[in-house]
Amino acid sequence: MARPKGSINAANADQRALKSLKSSGVIIATSVIEQARAGCVQSQKMVMDKLLPNLKAESRPINFELDNSGSLSQQARDILKACSDGHISHEAAASLIGSLSGILKIREIEELEARLDQLETRLAENEKV
Q1: Residues with Cβ within 8 Å of residue 88, at least 6 apart in sequence
Q2: How far apart are CA 21 and CA 70, in angstroms?
């Protein structure tokens, strides 16, 4: 079925709307900048929000000795001791213990993979017999 006479193609309508928005955008941006220069705090905030990126909180590097030869639970105790002694912040301690927890999960997965490989090998040997 043909499009009714005089109707506008949707793609062309979208392009026209975008072109209109772009030209209006320049006018609006110019107006906001002028208002910001005139002292409008909201306009100044709008301009600054677009000019400067949002700052993200970053933690400082943690510098203390941790004995990696001990168990993960011993390392966690060492981290808590460093926190209680004031050598590292509570946030740093929580982050480090979270990292130890991640290491533990990786080890568990590796152990499960090894056990699964052993079971598959045994199963394959039993099928040969």
Answers
A1: 62, 64, 79, 82, 96
A2: 64
Among 100, 108, 92, CA closest to 76: 100
Residue 94 lies in a domain: yes
CA separation for the pair 95, 80 (Å, rounded): 11
Burial status of residue 96 (CB atoms within 10 A of its CB: 0-12, 13-18, 19 or more): buried
Answer whether residue 95 is part of any domain: yes
* Alpha-carbon 20 to chain mean position: 36
Angstrom distance (rounded) from CA 57 to CA 51? 19
Same domain, 89 and 120: yes
pTM as predicted? 0.50
Mean pLDDT of 43-51: 89
